[in-house]
Amino acid sequence: MREAHTFADHFSALAEGYRQHRPNYPRRLWHELSQKAPGRNTAWDCGCGSGQAALGLAEFFGRVMATDASAEQIARARRHPNVTYRVAPAEASGLADAEVDLVVVAQALHWFDVEAFYREARRVLVPGGLLAVVGYGWLSVNAPVDRLLHYFYAGILGPWWPLERRILNQGYRTLPFPFPELPAPRLTLRAEWDLSQLRGYLETWSALKNYRSSLGCDPLAPLLPALVRLWGDPRRKRLVTWPLFLRLGRLD
In this predicted model, what pLDDT tens digit does every residue of 14-43 receive, in sequence order? Predict the structure, then answer.
C-alpha cells in the first residue's frame, strides 16, 4: 500500500512575501484558458498560494474556488468577490463531482501526490473540462545580473533547494500527464521592478529560508553590494522576465 502523501510546508513562513513579491501571470493566459474551457462558470485554482492565479481567473469565470494546504497562505491571500478560499490539500479538495470547468495548478504541481491529484481533477471536472498545469522558469534581467543571480541560485543555494524543485526546472515534462494534451500558447511573465522589489522576490525562495535556518547566517547580504553595482540606481525600474510553460489536458 502506498504511504499517504505528507504536505511539505515550505511556504507558510514566506506567505507575506509571496503575497507582496511573487510576479503576476499575464492576462492573456487566463483569457486563453477561458476560451478553451467548456464553460466559464467555475474554475478551481489548486495550490493557490497567495492568490495570484485566482485573481486572474476571477475576471473570466463567475466563481473561482481557490485551495491551498497552507492555512497561512490562505489567510494572507488577496480577496475578490468572485473568489472563495479554502484550506484543503490538492488531493482532497472538498469540491463536488463535475463541479468545475477548469482546474489550474500554477507553480505547485511538483509539491503534490500527482496521481492522487489527477484522480481528484478527473472527479471535479465537468465532461470535457480542462486541466492547465502552469509554471515559470528562471528569471532574466540582463546578462551581468543574470550571471550573478544564477551563481547565487545554484552555487550558493544549490544544496538547499527541496528535491521537488528539479521537477519544476524540467518544466513538468518528466511528470506523467494522463490526459489528451492540447497545444499551448507561448507566454512570458513580465514585471517592471526596482532593486528592492527584486530583493523581495529573492526573499521568497525556499532555499534561502532553508539556508538561514540551518546555518544561522544570511547568504544574501554579501551578494547585495555586487548586485547594486550591476543594477545601478536601486530605484531604477528594470524589466524582469520569466519564461512561462504550460501543459493543457482535456478530460476525456
Answer: 456 555 778 899 999 999 999 999 999 999
Burial pattern 148-183, b for ≥16 Cβ within 10 A else e, equals bbeebbeebbeebbeeebebbeebbeebebebeeee
For cell 492573456, the residue is 28
Nearest to 173, CA basis, from 247, 90, 242, 252: 247
CB-CB contact of 71 with 12 (8 Å):
yes
Chain-centre distance for alpha carbon 82:
20
Q: Do 85 and 94 touch, CB atoms closer than 8 A?
A: no
What is the distance of C-alpha 126 from the center of its chain? 24
* Closest listed residue to residue 131, CA positions, set 43, 5, 23: 43
Q: What is the pLDDT of residues 197-240, one digit of tens each?
A: 999 999 999 999 999 999 999 999 999 999 999 999 999 999 99
| Mutual angle of helices 224-231 and 143-150, in 10-degree steps | 170
Q: Which residues contact 239 (CB under 8 A, 6 or more apart)?
A: 141, 190, 191, 192
Pick out the chain residues at pLDDT < 50. Answer: 1-5, 7, 10-11, 13-14
- Residue 68: closest CA among 77, 59, 57: 77
3-state secondary structure of 159: helix
Residue 95 DSSP code: P
d(CA 156, CA 146): 14
